[in-house]
Model the fold of this input.
Amino acid sequence: MLGGFLTDAIVVVLVLGLMIFVHELGHFLAAKFFGVRVLVFSLGFGKRLLHFTRGGTDYRVSALPFGGYVKMAGDDPSAVRQGDPEEFLSRPRWQRFLIVLMGPAMNALLAFALLAGLYRVHFPKPVYLEEPARLGDVEPDSPAAKAGLVAGDLIQRLGNLQNPLWADAEIKILTSTDEALPVKVFRGGQFVDLTLTPRAEGPNRVGYAGWYPYAPGRIEKVEPDLPADRAGLKPGDQIVGLDGRKVLCWPRIAMELRAGNGKPVELTISREGKEFSVPLKPVLAEVMGEKVWRIGVVFHSDVVIRSLPWGTAIEDSLQDNLRNCLATFDVLAKILTRRMSTRSLAGPIQIAQLSGEAYRAGIPELVMLVSFISLQLGIFDLLPVPVLDGGVIPLLVIEGIIRRDLSLELKERVIQVGIVFLLLLAVFVMYNDIVKTFRPS
Done:
């Protein structure tokens, strides 16, 4: 347990450190481009360990390897200004605007570049995400079941989405807790209008519908000397029924076997266009240290891993980041209007847990998480909160409209409000993480 905690801590420090450093690099590059004198550009905080000076800038590596910072000449409005044109506050407001904006812009660029690079060499994606939202299974007593949805339904409309793919449908459900969504499905040759109200579930209190995508049970491997092998099942066979009920989602087979607790079952098999029935009796076998009821088949994986051409990788990265960006703004709006629980917010503890889990799952999963968090950091930094870059931008816009600087006293009060807000937010998200860790349901 301690080893896992240390791994999570180290990974999150490196992950957040990289994103903060890239953020500050954006400010640094923009400042240099516009001729602002940069006094310090540091990798890390605290005591200076290594450094060199070039072009009037002290480039340094500091003791605490957590992000970095940029110190520009004349960036403190409370300090005495020398009137030097190379000072930050001496530059035109539009240049200061771009210098401020480049921080979150670099976070968005990092998110895009990481996904594009990953997709170029390793593109893992469940096939169903890019397919029309056709239901393969519906949990009993779930919101989907109560709405009248059944396996085989093809969703034509979900809220404001028309003919949604599964990738869009999943995000819509996650961000629509306790919200009545109009649903139109195509069933048995006709359209049916229904209403679905996802309920909040899990530690993050995100939307849950209780449905599963269409995922045919094509057998990829038959394990020797287990019931399926003894019954003559072969790779390429498809399980289309269980005890006389249609099966459109293969995980349902494993769920039924567990629920049956070893009871004999009758499978309907499709082979080369013909269907036939096979009686089987599951056996208790160990899988990853756990005893489960099995028949001895491995289903065809619906996750495709391939390398994409650069053009396709860039296009898919843009689409995925845009989808995540829109979903983030949707979640924030619903939290502010109390249509989603604040437990959907993640603080440093949960980010550390997620980072550690992604690291243990493999480099591709970690890269995808870093990309997602970098995008969230850029969006968060653009919020109109004093102290954040998003709080500086409105002040610059106001000063540009009135054609004069706001008073130093007003700016100090605004900054004080921003600091108090961020401190309260930090306490809240830490408490939120602790509650979700020790009271997950």
